[in-house]
């Protein structure tokens, strides 16, 4: 039976690599092609690529696992994320698509910030790149943890390990396939694979809870109303004020996620952003509802059938093996890998673009040719992946925990910075300054790091933690406004607005 499952996965891997080869022939001749697919993505591809790279293995592992363990109250994270995504598509998407092209045809977020604030160009590019590479290495590690858990749970002892554990072998296989198509095909390969992966993910997330409730799982007692846990289906059971704030403020992170907002930069025209928004938010709504339903229905099925699930984050894997034909199980595992790989590939490419454009071409080889830059970008993809594999080598890592830290870091460091850089630009020159931008970037990242280091995300008031994105986002916003007002100089700021 596992042979059929492995066959399905093998076909999926071949499809991903085939897309990478197609993209290699279409759009890797220069940096704009390799890093942004020439700004020619159709709305549907850009939208599903943004969604798939956003959700990662968290959608099929972390969120269902949290709902399985605690109940419907964990859905507030999904609700907050959807609200944040709506605001991101309306506030950031059209402005970023237009301004990154008109302000020097910026290919990366650090480049855009440098063009927006030329008086602090080098400082912004360097600090932005450091934040991006640091947090994305951790974020990529979270995805690899998901790949390791899949192979450890589903194929224990079946694959030749070459001296590695099943968990580590899963990490190596996941990273290897992602590296293959990302290094070869660049942004177009990542976007096209994301599009396919997004469709696979949505189908799996709709199919799984329906089968558990109404198929063979339902016949065996999969109704979500039968969990013998008080308040399991309540949105408020055990919810505190700090808990509610920590959950819904996940949505603040959207404004500062480089691997998501870079998709806005690649949509072929500003006029098509609205269509992409419709596709993206529809996909997200369906997928989130499916993930929530899977966690709740999975717990009901497990309780009624005496099933012991040691790690709640593996409920999707467990149900895939129990309730479906091996070929379908392979498809479902491909959906999980799609969620993981779509995010990893996006993060690797954004990290690579920062290392190439904001370090290599800025300090080491200013006159580097386009071909050289593309090749250096490929090397950087591999280097970041190796670092992430090292972080992910601990099998006790939790996907949701790693993702939450990296998500907060980006949201606090870049969220207020991106929003204000796009919107706070008075025609007379008043508004955000380069010094304010630097202050917000450093303050946001620093507050998040300190909040985690002192354990305040776990114990802030009376044993209750507060998600680190909240103080980080607020502190960053205040720093930008205060420092900008203190350092405003009409001539300098007006020049940056008109550039």
Automatic annotation (TrEMBL):
Listed CDD domains: SLC5sbd_PutP
Main localization of the protein described in the UniProt heading: membrane
Transmembrane helix listed as a keyword: yes
Keywords from the UniProt entry: Amino-acid transport, Cell inner membrane, Cell membrane, Ion transport, Membrane, Sodium, Sodium transport, Symport, Transmembrane, Transmembrane helix, Transport
Cellular component GO terms, alphabetical: plasma membrane
Family: Belongs to the sodium:solute symporter (SSF) (TC 2.A.21) family.
Record's bilayer topology term: Multi-pass membrane protein
Protein name: Sodium/proline symporter
GO molecular function term, any single one: L-proline transmembrane transporter activity
Compartments (UniProt record): Cell inner membrane; Cell membrane
Protein's GO biological process: proline transport
Organism, as annotated: Erythrobacter insulae
Catalytic activity field: L-proline(in) + Na(+)(in) = L-proline(out) + Na(+)(out)
Source organism, top-level taxon: Bacteria
InterPro entries: Na/Glc_symporter_sf, Na/Pro_symporter, Na/solute_symporter, Sodium:Solute_Symporter
Lineage: Bacteria, Pseudomonadati, Pseudomonadota, Alphaproteobacteria, Sphingomonadales
Gene: putP
Keyword ATP-binding: no
Regions that span the bilayer: 6-24, 75-93, 126-147, 167-192, 199-218, 238-257, 278-302, 322-344, 373-393, 399-422, 434-454, 466-483
PANTHER family: SODIUM/PROLINE SYMPORTER-RELATED (PTHR48086), SODIUM_PROLINE SYMPORTER (PTHR48086:SF3)
Gene3D superfamilies according to UniProt: Sodium/glucose cotransporter
Reported function: Catalyzes the sodium-dependent uptake of extracellular L-proline.
